[in-house]
Fold this sequence. Notes:
Elements: E1 5-7, E2 10-12, E3 18-20, E4 22-26, E5 29-33, E6 39-41, E7 48-54, E8 69-70, E9 79-80, E10 87-88, E11 99-109, E12 124-130, E13 142-146, E14 149-154, E15 168-169, H1 173-176, E16 180-181, E17 189-190, E18 203-205, E19 212-217, E20 227-236, E21 241-245, E22 248-255, E23 260-267, E24 275-276, E25 280-282, E26 286-293, E27 300-307, E28 315-316
Parallel strand pairs: 13-15, 16-18, 25-28
Antiparallel strand pairs: 1-6, 2-3, 4-5, 5-27, 7-20, 8-9, 10-19, 11-18, 11-20, 12-13, 14-17, 14-19, 21-22, 22-26, 23-24, 23-25, 23-27
Amino acid sequence: MENHYHWMGPITLSSDIEYRCRMKKHARTYYLLAASLVAMNATGQSLSTELDVPGTANLWLSGMRSGAQASACLNGVWDSSPTESPSQILGIQLRPGAKLIFTASGQVANGPLANSVAQPPDGLASFVISNSGGAEHGIANLTAPLDSLIGVFLGADDPEATPPPEPLDFSTQLSRDYQTLAPAPKQPFFIGDGTDSTGARQFVLIPRGAKRLYLGTADGCGHYNNEGAFHVNVRLHNPPGLQIEVSEVTLNWFAKSNVVYQLQYRQGTQAETWRPLGPQVLGDGTFHSVQERLDDTAQRLFRVVEVPLTQPGPVRP
């Protein structure tokens, strides 16, 4: 399957000169056209999106048909779809192995605000809670602070078609201070405000088979009377990037460990020959950056390609 990414949009530089850039990723080749940034792929999908998650969003109704129920309270009242359905992330292509970054703000109250104290996305740390129905509709149970922001990945199929995975437990600060979390599909996870207790950014790995992502709030039962909402920004981490600074272009790409890359260029859109730009680079799981001076004689295109380990030529670590 081939993936395509285009970057279209203005970059305003310190010299007040506005440039435009276009970038395309084709299969395992990244094309960078230095003649002209918003994160947008060929189907119009963004590399980031924003949405509101109401306090009524019940994660155990993810992917459920209208009329489905979950999280019954002792008084016999259930949450139901679509009234208490969670918020689905749209506009981002969920690529297995990629990382997501969440940034959340706002407050949610467990019940009417007149009877409770609204909590931020990290929830009420002194009161952790699980779903009253345990695993429901094929979605695993979860233990997390009350009113915290939580999420779950689903595949393309009905979540009820397969048994739920093991539940995750975020009852301690240590468990919530993860750097990178790798939940399975149908395995709810804690998000909070997107940072750990030190303020460091946290990452969530998109699992294999994930086609949908839903966000909700942690509540044992009775989401129906919660108030408030979280405003959430979700973006893909490590998209290939291009930065243009007037007469110099900085080419950045994420180099997977033990994969050899070759940066290449060609003069203008009609040229047929791609020429190597510098030595081959052996990936080490970090970003690599190359700066190249531009001139006014011709349009120059850049790309970075994966090459076999056995391909001759110098390799730079």
